[in-house]
Design a protein that fits this description.
It comes from Fulvimarina pelagi HTCC2506. By secondary structure, the chain is α/β, with parallel strands linked by helices. The chain has 10 helices and 10 strands. It has helices at 41-48, 71-78, 96-101, 110-115, 120-132, 148-161, 178-195, 206-212, 235-242, 244-271, and strands at 2-10, 16-25, 30-34, 56-61, 64-65, 81-84, 166-170, 199-202, 215-220, 223-228. The strands form 2 sheets. A 6-stranded mixed beta sheet has the order 6-7-8-3-9-10, with helices on both faces. The chain has a 4-stranded antiparallel beta sheet with strand order 2-1-4-5.
Length: 272
């Protein structure tokens, strides 16, 4: 279980990104973070694994307070947290297999990692994960030869190679087309269900969040203004999260995108 209490982040500029955020994510739950730009979504995720240092508050993963760890302890605890990035964060010149095995770097010695000499069980596990994300036929392909959706699948496999107790996912579909976005979100939710793995997903697409998330937390100006199931995410709630002007604009854009997607699907069906 992840339990955050009183989490605050104030930058050196004086800007406050998070204002006393408290929430719990039980085992197996997929929580989606939504909100306007600058609401604190990415900051919240990055505070959990301390890519961003919190100003105050506690971040409990099980019985360990991640916010109070020194560097050596933090490195050990980060092995428990898989991170999936918006821009994939792959090493372009390495193969899929090598990128997935990089998820095991926290478990092998310096020399093994330097020489990329991983134990046989790690290599076997990497094959299994690449098969699970649908890329078993591309194990020797370089990362820079992949499509965006394929890169995100590699990122998922790499995170799972850590055998994490928590997944942090930062805008996994922001660079993807609508069809691929749905495929990636479906894959993520299936994997979390298979492993009873909790996940916190920063997601900008409200319809996707409503379709795939079990619970949604809405942030505005660094504070939680909504916390509940997707069914409770009414027009009123969305206006509270985004503001009337921003939400009406987003809704219009979503409707136009859905119409364009439907037309694309129709044309593809005709071609087939």
């Amino acid at each position: 279980m992840l339990r955050i209490e009183g989490l605050t982040k104030t930058y050196k500029t004086g800007d406050t990104a998070l204002r006393g955020v408290s929430l719990e994510v039980p085992t197996g739950q997929i929580l989606g973070l939504i909100g306007p730009s600058g609401a604190g979504k990415s900051t919240l995720i990055r505070c959990v694994n301390r890519l961003v240092e919190p100003s105050s508050g506690s971040i409990m993963l099980g019985d360990i307070d991640l916010a109070g760890l020194n560097r050596a302890e933090l490195r050990r605890q980060r092995r428990r947290i898989g991170m999936i990035f918006q821009e994939y964060a792959l090493v372009e010149r390495l193969t899929l297999m090598e990128n997935v095995l990089s998820g095991r770097l926290g478990y092998v010695s310096f020399w093994r990692s330097l020489l990329r000499r991983f134990p046989g069980k790690d290599i076997q596990r990497a094959y299994q994960l690449l098969d699970r994300v649908g890329l078993i036929d591309h194990v020797d392909k370089r990362a820079d030869a992949l499509s965006g959706g394929q890169r995100q699948r590699v990122g998922i496999a790499r995170a799972l190679a850590q055998e994490p107790e928590l997944l942090l996912v930062d805008e996994p579909t922001a660079s993807l087309d609508p069809k691929t976005s749905r495929q990636i979100m479906r894959l993520l939710t299936e994997i979390c269900a298979e492993r009873d793995l909790p996940a916190v997903v920063n997601i900008h697409d409200v319809p996707l969040a409503k379709q795939f998330m079990q619970r949604i937390v809405g942030l505005r100006a660094g504070e939680i203004v909504f916390d509940g199931p997707p069914s409770d995410l009414t027009e009123s709630a969305l206006t509270t999260i985004y503001g009337a002007v921003d939400w009406n604009t987003m809704r219009k854009e979503d409707e136009e995108k859905q119409e364009a997607d439907a037309e694309t699907d129709r044309q593809l069906a005709e071609i087939a």
